[in-house]
Amino acid sequence: MSFLPFALPEIGEEEIAEVVDTLRSGWVTTGPKARRFEQDFVTFLGDASLQAMAVNSATAGLHLALEALGIGPGDEVITTTHTFTATAEVVRYLGADVVLVDIDPATLNIDPAAVEAAITPRTKAILPVHYAGLAAPMDAILAIARRHGLKVVEDAAHALPTTHAGALVGTLASDATVFSFYANKTITTGEGGMVVTRDAALAERIKVMRLHGISRDAFDRFTAKTPSWYYEIVAPGFKYNLTDIAAALGLHQLKRAEGFQRRRAEIAARYDAAFAGLPLLTPPGPAPGDRHAWHLYVVRLADGAPLAREAFIERLFALGIGCSVHYIPLHQHPYWRERYGLEAARFPHSQRAYERMASLPIYTKMSDADVERVITAVREVLGPVTAIGESA
Fold it and tell me: What does the pLDDT look like over 296-344, one tens digit per residue?
């Protein structure tokens, strides 16, 4: 039987035709389609007060947002240990320090109480992550930020189209929100991201810094009807612009985002029902009335499981099912551990989750038969067990 990969993007004929049109147009780097994608993204979020800036990765977007907020040497930014390194590394790009905190053991999202306990006079910002596509507790995070005069940048790499308290992530009261369009995300441009903010000054700084600190956007200069060769470098910027080739994909992926989410939610519901009674914990769903993006479906082996996480993944691979782990917590990695003297005991919830977790395939190209293959394999590996033996 063929191997079922952990993730695959769903690219349709509309995306392919748009890319071909881009190649024929002559605008292969940042141009009219990148601008259209930004405009369409604001329309999708449904809030005309927002500005959206397309970038070549969510990592770039996080870096730009923090830079525009003035984060620098001597500052501290609080984020979760249970994330990919990009969330934290952008803080180090700016010479600031990362303060890692633990997660809520039920949701695997950042723990607001841990955030507040970690605040010092050096703290300048909080960087929550919407883990797996489930909204972080933003009401609590934003309230903490207001009490302490802190900035908030949301890492929404997993969270399109997640809602929190009925509002789309991207429209909340944070200073900026950053989305990812990497190949395995809920929509893709291959590589890419989007920064969203209501702050006009922040948006202007991001626009300048994403393209070398140039005072005028390249698209504006090269499409002007009068000579417009002159520009000024106003800051030492970066090379973070999104190409029109990538934006061409995004234009049509965005139109399919709602349908993609529904299919992911269907798969998650099938998994939830099929795994009831097995010795594992299924991921938490959204709050009533809210929506989970289901970027990831992360299970955790319970005390009654007949094998350890590593063996669980190996057995699934042997049955042709791709799996992954999200994430090896940052406190486990040599750089973060050694720089900040981190020990696993400081992060008991993240550590315990990590030791037991595995991410199962959940993507829109999966057929019903593919979903059933995963279910059958998981049930075969875990055996006929009837009680999970622990709670979240």
Answer: 999 999 998 999 999 999 999 999 999 999 999 999 999 999 999 999 9
Give φ, ψ of 79 to 5 degrees.
-150, 180
Whether the upstream peptide bond of residue 327 has omega within 30° of 0, thus cis, is yes
Beta strands in the chain (DSSP E): 51-55, 76-80, 97-101, 123-127, 151-156, 163-164, 167-168, 176-180, 193-197, 280-281, 297-301, 357-360
Domains, the chain, in order of start with CATH, read: 13-255 (3.40.640.10), 258-382 (3.90.1150.10)
Which residues in 40-62 are b (16+ Cβ under 10 Å) and which e?
A: bbbebbeeeebbbbbbbbbbbbb
Structure tokens at 23: 């190649």
Contact yes or no for 106/284 (Cβ under 8 A): yes
Which backbone phi and psi does 325 adopt, to 5 degrees? -135, 125
d(CA 361, CA 371): 8
Q: Which amino acid is at 28?
A: V
Between CA 38 and CA 51 the distance in angstroms is 8
Helices (H), 233-347: 244-255, 257-275, 309-318, 334-340
**CA–CA gap between residue 160 and residue 257 (Å, rounded):** 8
Catalytic residue ranges: 185
